[in-house]
């Protein structure tokens, strides 16, 4: 159960009584219960340190050797992408959602992630990263650029330079802070201003996930999120990128989003009118469609994340003619739903 006092840390949020009426709607939803009952959680150790455990959900056809891997934000666990797992595996994709072990350094994280891919016998992968997850995805692509392990990136509400949080000088002191102080830091970046019921449910679910993280897990993620580092785009210039962001308020400023566009001038852009910090939860249909559009350019190649049996010969012919051409990322939500039904 969510600790009610933590809601006090969310500025300009709805009154507690209003929130309580919405509490646990995602956690008791049929989709979430179906996910938890059908997709097993795996725990894998790849480092010499037995305390470093990767938790993951691996769903979809295991014959796929270039799946899409989902990386959560600071407050997230592997469960936060359950709607992506259900939808994408239903379309024939192999999807892996991760939860990080405790890593205090970006190079240490990249080394551990590389070992995990080796353990799973995955040569190259597509990465979807939300916020910190997107930053880690970029750093991993950069770190392995001489022997590429990342074929494409989908960056959702993400950033390329940790200095935007203005905590680089204090990042190395997070390990000293008690859990409640670390949660206060994270919750301070949650919703500001009015939000709709779906966003309320998403925030509540993320607060519940945040409560499940230990002090060391949270402190290490905040350290990775804030220690002085930035992405070197010239090292990943050959990686296909899609940027997903929202037009309403989120933890990232307009300037940070503009910087991402400058960093990846050739990236496809997928904009959502609303969605806040967690569009993969509260606007899952649109996010799932954008992921599908991004991955469609690899159909019929060795880097396809989908079961070939799920792709029609006509679509493969279209892909060959278009050579991975663009799809319109500016679709309205109702158009997204229509396109999903057509697929």
Automatic annotation (TrEMBL):
Domain AB hydrolase-1: 108-178
Protein name: Maspardin
Stretches the record annotates as Disordered: 317-343
Pfam families cross-referenced by the UniProt entry: Abhydrolase_1 (PF00561)
This protein's GO CC annotations: cytosol; trans-Golgi network transport vesicle
Family of the protein in this entry: Belongs to the AB hydrolase superfamily.
PANTHER family in the cross-refs: ACID CLUSTER PROTEIN 33, MASPARDIN
Alphabetical UniProt keywords: Cytoplasm
Cell compartments where the protein resides: Cytoplasm
Keyword flag Cytoplasm: yes
GO molecular function, one term: CD4 receptor binding
Organism from which the protein derives: Anguilla anguilla (European freshwater eel)
GO terms under biological process: cell surface receptor signaling pathway
InterPro entries per the UniProt record, alphabetical: AB_hydrolase_1, AB_hydrolase_fold, Maspardin
SUPFAM superfamilies hit by this protein: alpha/beta-Hydrolases
